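To close the chapter, one final illustration. This time we ask the reader to focus less on the individual chains and more on the assembly as a whole: which components sit near each other, and how the overall shape emerges from the parts.
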Amino acid sequence: MQNFGFQKPRDLAAAVAAAKKAPEGKYLGGGQSLLPVMKLGLAAPSELIALSGLAELKGVRVEGKELVIGAGTTHAEVAASAEVKKAIPALADLAGHIGDPQVRNRGTLGGSLAHDDPSADYPAAVLALGATVVTDRRRIAADAFFQGMFQTALAPDEVITAVRFPLPEKAAYAKFPHPASKFALVGVFVARGAGGVRVAVTGAGPSVHRSAPLEKALAARFAPEALAGVAVPAGGLQNDPFGSAEYRAHLVAVMARRAVAACG
Amino acid sequence: MPAISLKLNGRSVTAEVEARTLLVELLRERLGLTGTHVGCDTSQCGACTVHVDGRSVKSCTMLAVEADGREVTTIEGLAAADGTLSPVQAAFREHHGLQCGFCTPGMVMSATELVRRNPGAGEREIREWLEGNLCRCTGYHNIVKAVQAAAQTGRG
Ligand SMILES: Cc1cc2nc3c(=O)[nH]c(=O)nc-3n(C[C@H](O)[C@H](O)[C@H](O)COP(=O)(O)OP(=O)(O)OC[C@H]3O[C@@H](n4cnc5c(N)ncnc54)[C@H](O)[C@@H]3O)c2cc1C
Ligand code: FES
Ligand code: FES
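The assembled structure is written out below.
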């Protein structure tokens, strides 16, 4: 790894100011995506600005009809949080199946969303629940946040501070994990709430996306049987050594049925 | 170079490190604690697992500077001063939880966190917990047996 400068600011304003001064710099969350990428030489930031010292990014709480999770909260903390388990159990369950315990002890919600791996789990939850990504300067709706493979609406010096999840009536996530990495070969998050029925698919395509045919069928009837015979088009899905586009399309329908069944 | 200080296996340590120094490089190359192994260097195998503030992390995927002010425990820090093995270490020996031993330090560190956090852990929880630790020799059965035995003692 090429060397770099390192700073650990004590508050959010200082972190953003440091990033503005270092155009080739990057924020460091738990490092579970960024450090592997840097070891491979795919990123060589001049400066790492650690977010681990920021109190503004910590904490889990329910505010009115929303569950608010600080962006610096680790996957392990979300999985173990009594508040999350009570408010949106599907989210605690999702966090508890990311990677392995060591990854969950370091990796953070904000890091996962900013990295936006096309096979990551959290983006499916954020998109299906219609959550709002809160940054140091604005609020971004989930539908506008994810913009394609590893691409989000964030400016280079923008920090995610929290995510606000509207409490759903029903929600569940079903993932077919890659057996080695645990990343989703296909993952489907299904939610029913004030925004209607939303179905988000990760792993299958070049980016997390909503599935119109599945949402339409479930809006008519929210039951696993409603998905019988619904075809998920394979066009545009990933074709790689792990699975063909047709295989992934098939898995999307299977995972969607499992998620709806898990909603009870 | 940034100066850091941490508590390592109960002792205070200060060191000057480059920002890019990984925690495992600090431990093995600077401080001579070679019990922590590097199997893959790509965050996959868990051989490099150590505890930071009591939690398992892959020390090949954490910067040494991020350990500043924290408590780090390595495999060298588990046994008592008189050499008495920790319950998890003793159980690995008793139940043949190792063959070549390469994965063992990471396995033991990971299992120790589980046993401390969830003393009643059963086979399924143990297998799920050890997801981040790969072993090329044992086929895992005796590792799981060892962790189960240690879990029953209720002490990590
Ligand atoms: C072995 C292994 C298995 C894994 N398995 C899975 C899996 O099954 N499912 C899954 O979803 N993920 C998986 N991951 C990825 C993991 O979830 C990462 O933790 C996550 O993608 C990145 O979070 P982080 O906090 O570590 O971010 P970092 O790696 O520190 O940063 C990632 C990117 O986000 C930026 N960033 C970090 N925090 C913020 C913030 N608050 N605001 C703005 N930008 C920010 C950084 O600048 C960087 O560009 C796995 C990783 C490993 C190593
Ligand atoms: S050496 Fe760190 S995970 Fe393999
Ligand atoms: S004992 Fe040889 S790798 Fe596990």
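Chain A has two domains: 5-166, 170-263. The CA atoms of residues 148 and 207 of chain A lie 5 Å apart. With these observations in hand, you are ready for the problems at the end of the chapter.
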